[in-house]
Amino acid sequence: MVQHRPGTAAVAKRNEYNIIGADVPDETLFKGDLLVASLSAPPRTVNSIYYYDDTGSRLFERLCEEETYYLFRTEKEILTQHATSIADITGPIPLVELGSGNAEKTRLLIDAYVKAYGQTSYAAVDINHSILERAAENILSVTSDLDFLGIVGTYQTGLAQAANLIGPKLLVCLGSTMGNMHDDELHNLLLEARSALSPGDYFLVGIDLDKETEILEAAYNNQTAILTNLCVLQHLNWRFSGDFDLFKFRHVAFHNKSLHRMESHLEAMQDQLINLQKLKFSFQLEQGEMIRTEIMRKVDLHAFHDVFIEYNFRSVQHWTDSNQWYAVSLFQLAAESTELESKPPMEKML
């Protein structure tokens, strides 16, 4: 059983689960001033968090089932084959996951720990209370040997909770989480992870690898991907009383080879004036002008590992699928701290 320092929440008892915290306030996640700034001048952008309202979340689940969208099933395949190896390396250890979602893939990892070591502790962090309930029910439907703690909050909330755990721990960050981050966001996450963990703690990360343009562009240009991207405008309309006309935009997703990433955009099909009434903000779009909605890093694995070394994480082992399309990497925080460069050293991934 995980021990907590005084004043922190205790982990749930066997066969039960506990969820702490209220849903993260919308104003914390959807900051109108940042949106206005990102849309005020070319290149115009929208933070990818606007994908994830109820409609967007359902579409993303559907996207994971698309034949060309290999990411979800490939990471799941890796965990199916290698979860036991991960558990063997770390030994019995509590798990803390950032952005757990419904924990469908994480269940494979937890199952390996339960089979190897019996009662296991797992803290799932997500911004939504109901998705944490689904995660708990998902996992506890197949095992009772789990202490499940749901933490409603941001990554910062989860890392603060991880810092309160006494003893070794495994921080988990699967899916597209790191791949969708911009340089400053990834820099901050790695800094905070380093601060929250103790020397010897582990960090398990999933990341998509660079590959042929045809494979990448097929994954992000299927019908569900197109709908998911267009629904960003629908989200902006209902949240900020906007007047985006979805029929006046087209989905554009392409492989930016020089930056080693996929990019999703929405291209204006005619000149138009956009109004977001709740933000008291208007702007003019010209025909052919694009709004970038998401980046998806496609990394060189060794360069990606080099970035972690900059933050004092040493590479322990990594696992890939048979096609070498995706990787799950295990890192361990080293005992000696290193000085960071003044700017995030993300160019090492290029």
UniProtKB/TrEMBL annotation:
<keyword id="KW-0489">Methyltransferase</keyword>
<dbReference type="InterPro" id="IPR029063">
    <property type="entry name" value="SAM-dependent_MTases_sf"/>
</dbReference>
<protein>
    <submittedName>
        <fullName>L-histidine N(Alpha)-methyltransferase</fullName>
    </submittedName>
</protein>
<dbReference type="InterPro" id="IPR017804">
    <property type="entry name" value="MeTrfase_EgtD-like"/>
</dbReference>
<feature type="domain" description="Histidine-specific methyltransferase SAM-dependent">
    <location>
        <begin position="35"/>
        <end position="332"/>
    </location>
</feature>
<dbReference type="InterPro" id="IPR019257">
    <property type="entry name" value="MeTrfase_dom"/>
</dbReference>
<dbReference type="Pfam" id="PF10017">
    <property type="entry name" value="Methyltransf_33"/>
</dbReference>
<dbReference type="InterPro" id="IPR051128">
    <property type="entry name" value="EgtD_Methyltrsf_superfamily"/>
</dbReference>
<keyword id="KW-0808">Transferase</keyword>
